[in-house]
Amino acid sequence: MSDLRSFLDLVRAQRPSDFIEIKREVDRRFETAAILSKLEMQQRSPILLFGSVRGAALPLVTNVCGSMGRIAFALSCPIKDVSARYAVAAAAPIQPKVTRDAPVQEIRATGRDIDLGRLPALVYHEYDADKPYITAAVAVARDPDSGRTNLSVHRLMVRDSTSAAVFIERGKHLDGILQAFRRAGRIMPIAFFIGSHPAWLLGAVYSGPLEEYGVIGGLLREPLSIVECVTQTGLFVPARAEVVLEGVIDPDQLVEEGPFGEWSGYSTGIVRSPLFQVSAMTMRRDAIFQDVVSGHMEHLTVELPAIEHRTLARARAAAPSVAAFAVIAPFTSVVALEKTAEDEPKRVMDALLSTDIQAKHLIVVDADVDIRDPRRVFRAIGLNTQPVRDVHIYPDESGTLLDPSCTSPTARTSKMGIDATRRLAPTRQIKPNQVPSDVLASVDISDVLKRRP
After folding, report:
1. 82-121: per-residue pLDDT in tens?
2. What angle do CA 270, 35, 403 make, to 5 degrees?
């Protein structure tokens, strides 16, 4: 049975160096982020289980997906096969099954019994808002037009015992659903579940034509058990989650939210975000609250398989000879291409920079370049790129407010594509430096070294 606590038990038993339990009380403000920061300075990224958080009723676990090695462990595959496992899951989704056996509904609070203050929501950074945040909540909403269920991960700023501000990026699926409810003049039912097996989070950030619950099933290789919400009919949440918050969002009610230090390493500042009114809070009797320390390794690793999957699909639709894709820095990606036509790099740029709000800088290289080695990538730019011919500026595209360089209140931004591929028919004949192959093959270095005086 694959849920958060079964995964924690597995890591504790089989990868004990990946699990640290801290029993002393920690402060809600800054301390958990400080502890993780110190560990990362030592090149360590373990799961951290805090048994006591000051002022909260639940224990806290963070950094569950804090390394690609642990994500691979959760998926029972080598690190190099994580992307392929994700692609297989998306190609063969397994739909969820509805159950009434729901540990997450063992405790139910409605009305005046709801108290978000029981949850160990945290403050992470010096310049963050004073209000605490929930960062590992997965939203569940249904499109009012299609009836399809959408999952997505969002930050929630707790305002009081029954409400929180929810950051929803423009152009994302949940934003589209919210706008559909606005056009219909209706409030939006929504639920957030907290306490996820790594496969749940990986599937929740999927972006494509499928429903995310099916992708999660594909990653688990079994159906995910889901249960209907207590107060929001028609919404279903994982039966073995730890905590669920149910409620509604009025599309026309916005409140100030932030500042908040995001995955880019910088604060987003204060924005106007939708207000989530909680109608029920359910949880296990011995619930564990899950957290993602914003701006640290987990914030990046949990997104990468989904980003790679969707980007490769879009890139290959523009140029089937695309071989690989990698994110090498915030808002900066590299595509490797078995180029067969000179216009292919530009076609890939057009496809990605016009459709992905988080794609701002895109470098296209030949397939023999190791795209995860920045030196090889910059070497390709230095040797193959003529700026007047190969650098393409896109002056007005959809971006994201998570980009600290974006000054537009509507997240409009400029973007850049760099063609660093070799010409198929170069006008100037250039020969690489190389030793004749027969001479190279004839040299026995061990024999040469033996003959030293």
Report:
1. 999 999 999 999 999 999 999 999 999 999 999 999 999 9
2. 30
